[in-house]
From TrEMBL:
Transmembrane segments: 39-63, 75-97, 224-242, 248-266
Keywords, in A-Z order: Membrane, Transmembrane, Transmembrane helix
Name this protein carries in UniProt: DUF4231 domain-containing protein
Species this chain originates from: Symploca sp. SIO1C4
InterPro entries: DUF4231 (IPR025325), SLATT_1 (IPR040884)
Lineage of producing organism: Bacteria, Bacillati, Cyanobacteriota, Cyanophyceae, Coleofasciculales
Keyword Ion transport among record annotations: no
Residue intervals of the SMODS and SLOG-associating 2TM effector domain: 201-320
């Protein structure tokens, strides 16, 4: 699904649109940062869980061989004391500081802003009135931002977007494109500000989002297969250990399998893979439908093209937000339970 982009004569960039892009970029940047912190903390907790089990089993096995008075046993015993303490601290901090909710809220808001921006640039719906569309976009940006008030996002500081939404070179070309000769070379890439023709919208919005879905589905498919096979293999290893009278090591294979399963569950890999594939298929169907239309029908149905595309993308985004909220609800419930158990063990 690849399209050639036609050049367009672009008006000067709207300051409201520039502010909308900056807000969208700020939300996107901070969503990525929150996601990174969330997974780093969660992976750290999972690794420590495996380490605690491994140390406990090693302490038991080596203790029988060397005796409890050996220096190596004392070192292992020291780590056995430290790991649960560190794990308890991480579990307590995870509920307050892991930024999982921030990641979901910011990404959802960034996608909503992007939808409004592309509808604005395509001049569809209420944005078809050129005299009022700036005011409408400004109001939409305000409403989307207000949705974040009172959420955990306001307990942290948002890093401002420091990149240039519109480079100086693109800005020069954008003004230059207002003349009689369209800047064909410039319009091969999205300047983020020019009004969109149907061809440009298909290239810069529909096809770009379709390619993003396909890229993500390949990544998720690999994760699903690698980690799911890991669970099965570790289950087989556990059975083998029982067969050779090494039951004590089964705890290690079991906790590793649980870690792999937890990773898949935290990321909702399978559900997200299905949703992305469905969204990509829907976008492909929209592109195919558009290709079947005559030139006149394309002129008459441009608004429908935009609305169908944006509805498809937002439906996927809303579903993803709900899935991740469910995952976090389960995760935080388990975290509080584990934190309580760790605290009791430490006190004991």
């Amino acid at each position: 699904m690849k399209l050639e982009v036609k050049a367009t004569n672009s008006p000067p960039p709207s300051s409201v649109l520039q502010h909308a892009w900056e807000r969208q970029s700020t939300y996107g940047k901070n969503a990525k940062a929150s996601q990174s912190r969330f997974f780093c903390l969660r992976i750290g907790i999972l690794v420590l869980s495996v380490l605690a089990t491994l140390l406990a089993v090693t302490h038991s096995v080596i203790g029988e061989i060397l005796g409890n008075s050996h220096a190596a046993i004392k070192v292992i015993h020291l780590f056995l004391l430290l790991v649960p303490i560190i794990l308890s601290v991480l579990l307590a901090g995870a509920v307050k500081f892991d930024k999982g909710n921030n990641w979901i809220l910011l990404r959802g808001s960034a996608e909503l802003l992007k939808k409004e921006i592309y509808c604005y640039r395509a001049r569809v719906g209420n944005y078809s009135d050129l005299n009022s569309r700036d005011a409408l976009l400004a109001n939409k940006v305000k409403l989307i931002s207000q949705r974040l008030k009172g959420t955990p996002i306001h307990y942290t500081s948002l890093s401002p977007y420091e990149g240039e939404v519109l480079s100086k070179n693109n800005l020069f070309n954008l003004f230059k494109g207002k003349g009689n000769k369209p800047q064909e070379e410039h319009n091969k890439n999205d300047d983020k500000f020019s009004d969109l023709t149907a061809t440009n919208y298909l290239k810069w919005r529909l096809e770009d989002q379709f390619n993003w879905y396909r890229k993500k589905t390949r990544q998720l498919d690999k994760q699903l297969h690698y980690f799911q096979w890991g669970v099965y293999i570790l289950g087989g290893i556990g059975t083998f250990l029982v067969a050779v009278k090494q039951e004590i090591w089964v705890a290690v294979s079991t906790v590793l399998a649980a870690v792999f399963s937890s990773f898949l569950e935290i990321k909702r890999v399978e559900a997200t893979l299905i949703a992305y594939n469905q969204a990509a298929d829907d976008l492909y169907d929209i592109s195919t439908w558009w290709s079947s239309l005559s030139d006149q029908a394309k002129l008459d149905n441009f608004e429908l093209l935009v609305l169908k595309t944006e509805t498809t993308i937002q439906s996927e985004n809303a579903g993803w937000v709900q899935e991740m909220n469910d995952a976090l609800t389960e995760l935080y419930g388990e975290t509080k339970k584990l934190d309580t158990e760790s605290s009791h063990e430490f006190k004991g």
